Amino acid sequence: MKYRYSSTTRVLTVLGNHMTYIFRNVGLSDIENLVTDTKFKEACWRQ
């Protein structure tokens, strides 16, 4: 799982195994929580 953050547009893009998650208007302090939530969503995704 990889992620990219653009500080100019404040967009976090998380590339998961099943989906790509895009979060807008993200602060630097929110990145860790959003990546953790995305990992949980990927683990619970229909298999």
Which secondary structure elements does this structure contain, and how are they paired or packed?
Blueprint: E1 2-6, E2 11-15, E3 20-24, H1 31-44
Antiparallel strand pairs: 1-2, 2-3
**How does the major sheet shape up?**
3 strands, antiparallel
What percent strand?
A: 25-35%
**Count of the domains:** 1
User: Which segments are poorly predicted (pLDDT under 50) over 5 or more consecutive residues?
Assistant: none
- Mean pLDDT figure: 93
Number of helices: 1
* Radius of gyration based on Cα positions: 11 Å
Helical proportion, percent range: 25-40%
What coarse outline follows from CA principal-axis ratios? elongated
- In order across it, which strands form the biggest sheet? 1-2-3
Order of helices and strands: EEEH
Distance from first to last alpha carbon: 17 Å
Number of strands: 3
Question: Pairing-aware structural class of the strands and helices?
Answer: alpha+beta
Describe the structure.
It is a single chain. By secondary structure, the chain is an alpha+beta fold. It has one domain. Helix content is 30%, strand content 32%. The protein contains one helix and three strands. It has a three-stranded antiparallel sheet, covered by helices on one side. The longest helix has 14 residues. The two termini are 17 Å apart.
Give a quick rundown of the structure.
With 47 residues, the protein is of the alpha+beta class. Helix content is 30%, strand content 32%. The protein has a three-stranded antiparallel beta sheet, covered by helices on one side.
List descriptors.
47 residues; alpha+beta; three-stranded antiparallel beta sheet; 1 helix; elongated
